[in-house]
């Protein structure tokens, strides 16, 4: 018997038919939908007079366009966005698909909502018309994003024509130093292998540094694997992951629980499984990282200096460095530390979970938002928001001068009315720093929640480790 990777096992157990050398028909256990990528898919389905055969294995969440202003009733003012939300509601009602609607108190970002209710379990194939579906690898589920025509196919058949990926293993041993988080780890990895470094691969993370991460930190890691081009990210489920799932999946009891536990034990790569590419990193050398440019791989440790186009090894890199520097209005050789920010955004499916908000609160406690800075916290979901309110985190942050908002994607991609003005520089816990991502002409620096909190209280990009030293 040939040794298998975890990825092989997940694909094989979901293969309905082998179509050719490269493609299989893959069964999808769970299909998540948002208001943004589903309307045309439903329209196509209806044109062909098709139904949704297994509506219970589909779930929809209004994520992207929803306003986040405080208040109990949310009204979507923008007519196009309101139409997207009402279409989603109508389509879900028509087909019996569960929906977290605009004013559901548990609503939020699809990738935050689904795991917290036990919908994601080890061994599943989870898909969504959204690239950050890789997040679910943290629980040993194969998650990946699909396009709108594929959404239609999945609605109609619960299957997908799936092109097989290659397997990459990233091994990370050692202990993350104080002040460095899973966000810094993944930013460092993306910086090293590049924004296309994992293109065509499903990445399996393993090693002692991965074992040490909390499940929420693993979500952060797998979420951003797509920023290195990965078609999926996986971490073999361990006791921590299994406990996380069992605490939330109330339906897994009795004999089913025994069966599930026995199956989940098999979800790891065999000892001699072959990977197409392997990388290795040392967690103990990871410092807090901050992006300086307009791609997540344009990233350096916070103590670093913005690179110079002249120092780049080839013409393509020289040009992209030059262009990025022009956009972010930074000169080559400038230290990142001390760069003033006018805005701080804390949230997103990368860092909008309760542990992230606790990390922010730990830095902010005893301090307040610097004058001239607008700092905004948008919890990843209603459940995260309620939890943070119950723990006193919301009160602490509001007292320190943060805006405490309702959940949603918000300023991660500025598809609602949380949009930055041109030239505004933002310390952000999100995952993409593309040109215009948070508003036309706005400048994004990606970093961890603790680092964003440090920026909020100092008004500049700041090494959170120094902040802690100064203030004891
Ligand atoms: C809107 C959606 C299609 C998109 C994605 O696929 O990731 C968004 O969530 C993003 O983060 O850019
Ligand atoms: S929070 Fe950002 S990255 Fe995540 S789904 Fe929403 S827009 Fe995409």
TrEMBL record:
EC top class, as a word: lyase
Aconitase/3-isopropylmalate dehydratase large subunit alpha/beta/alpha domain sequence ranges: 8-459
GO molecular function, one term: metal ion binding
PROSITE patterns: ACONITASE_1 (PS00450), ACONITASE_2 (PS01244)
CDD domains on file: IPMI
Stored SUPFAM superfamilies: Aconitase iron-sulfur domain
Transmembrane residue ranges: none
Parts forming coiled coils: none
Necessary cofactors: [4Fe-4S] cluster
Subunit relationships: Heterodimer of LeuC and LeuD.
Family (UniProt): Belongs to the aconitase/IPM isomerase family. LeuC type 1 subfamily.
Name listed for the protein in its UniProt record: 3-isopropylmalate dehydratase large subunit
